Amino acid sequence: MQTNDHDWHDADVKCALEKLGTNLSALARANDLAPATLRNVFRMRWPKGERIIADALNEKPESIWPSRYDKKIA
């Protein structure tokens, strides 16, 4: 979706999921989590949650939340 060094805005993540016909609650339930659990990715780093959302969006977590990943790793 975005190709800059800024994290996606929360609303952009939610909107991208909606465009695919899903949402955070549905993804959480599909991954055996409580419906509100995935919202935690918007306030703290949580690799498991980031991966679930990124996979649904066919993206890498580091492209959605670049500030959370070390840019020196290549």
UniProtKB/TrEMBL annotation:
Domain Ner winged helix-turn-helix DNA-binding, chain residue ranges per copy: 7-72
Assigned keywords, A-Z: DNA-binding, Transcription, Transcription regulation
InterPro entries named among the record's database cross-references: Lambda_DNA-bd_dom_sf (IPR010982), Ner_HTH_dom (IPR038722)
Superkingdom assignment: Bacteria
Gene Ontology MF, one: DNA binding
Record family assignment: Belongs to the ner transcriptional regulatory family.
Stated name of the protein: DNA-binding protein
Annotated SUPFAM superfamilies: lambda repressor-like DNA-binding domains
Gene3D superfamilies according to UniProt: lambda repressor-like DNA-binding domains (1.10.260.40)
Keyword Secreted: no
